[in-house]
Write a structure and sequence with these properties.
19 helices; mainly alpha; Serine Threonine Protein Phosphatase 5, Tetratricopeptide repeat
Length: 320
């Protein structure tokens, strides 16, 4: 065990695993050795193997509190979000004095299970003790917004901006919250502040474009989408968004070109991209091309495509 500790301390995790192997061979009922070997395997990125060791540790000692915590981290890495949350809750039920950072991990597990309100509350317990952690403060604001508590989220960002007036990320967070609750002009003001402070990312231009689209300021939105695409030429979704803006402006040929690009770049919702391209084609007078796109959209699971097929496309037999 001493040799294993020494290897762990020096960052020689594979050597530590070898030493823990020897301990376990000599005493397979020693829960701490299983726990420590799992921790070394976690450092090596061998999460599935670490999970086996942690299961054994907890079978040998159901009160090994830290094992629940580490197993939750492994489950998060492996995408087992329900199991991760269960283990985190077990850890907290057995630990009367958790570390401040433990609340952050609990909030991550809750967030992955879409328990945004609970995640924001857990993160609040951490921020009560670590008020200057800007990253987690921003995350809490976004969690509040995801849980539909937009006014609370906006107020939280505003309070943070009084303390950190130069932090563009706070204007971005507040702007997103205002966009979600429909305060489009205020959202634009926040995105303008981001740009003034040098945060000229594709995401900021995209968000400002969405707010401008909601206000029917389509020409300005088009310029923003173009700026966003210039900064992220590989995003099919940005071409989709610009295409929708052009469609709204009756620039059908230009919209179709953007939808072509979105499809070529494998936009996240391919069915919707095909649906939109079909609309552009129909408005340009290419009815047969539109019907082909809507047919493809239906085949890959876009239900709205069937509505357009039935309304505009004559078929010899029902679509299956």
């Amino acid at each position: 065990m001493r040799q294993a500790y020494s290897a762990d301390s020096a960052g020689r995790y594979q050597d530590a695993v070898v030493q823990y192997d020897k301990v376990i061979q000599a005493n397979p009922g020693y829960a701490k050795a299983w726990f420590n070997r799992a921790a070394s395997k976690q450092q090596l990125g061998r999460q599935a193997q670490a999970l086996v060791d942690l299961n054994t540790c907890l079978r040998l000692d159901t009160n090994f509190t830290d094992a629940y915590f580490n197993r939750a981290l492994v489950h998060l890495k492996l995408g087992n979000h329900v199991f991760a949350l269960t283990d985190m809750e077990l850890y907290f039920s057995k630990n009367s004095s958790p570390e401040p950072e433990d609340w952050v991990f609990l909030s991550h597990a809750q967030e992955q299970n879409q328990l945004y309100k609970e995640a924001a509350e857990s993160l609040g317990k951490y921020l009560d003790q670590e008020r200057n952690d800007l990253v987690q403060s921003v995350r809490q604001g976004r969690l509040l917004s995801l849980s539909g508590r937009y006014k609370e989220a906006e107020d939280a960002f505003s309070r943070l901006l009084m303390r950190f007036p130069e932090a563009a990320v706070l204007y971005e967070g507040r702007g997103e919250t205002r966009l979600e609750r429909g305060a489009y002009r205020d959202a634009i003001d926040d995105f303008n502040m981001c740009l003034l402070q040098g945060k000229r990312t594709a995401r900021i231009y995209q968000l400002r474009a969405e707010a401008r689209m909601a206000l029917n300021e389509n020409g300005d939105a088009l310029e923003d989408y173009t700026q966003a695409i210039a900064r992220d030429t590989a995003s099919g979704d940005l071409f989709l968004d610009r295409g929708l803006c052009q469609l709204k402006m009756s620039a059908f040929a230009e919209a179709e070109l953007d939808f072509n690009k979105a499809i070529a770049l494998k936009c996240n919702d391919l069915g919707y991209c095909l649906l939109a391209r079909g609309l552009a084609k129909m408005q340009s007078g290419n009815g047969s091309g539109a019907c082909e796109d809507w047919d493809k959209a239906v085949l890959i699971g876009e239900p709205e495509g069937r509505t357009y097929l039935e309304k505009y496309c004559v078929r010899k037999e029902p679509h299956e």
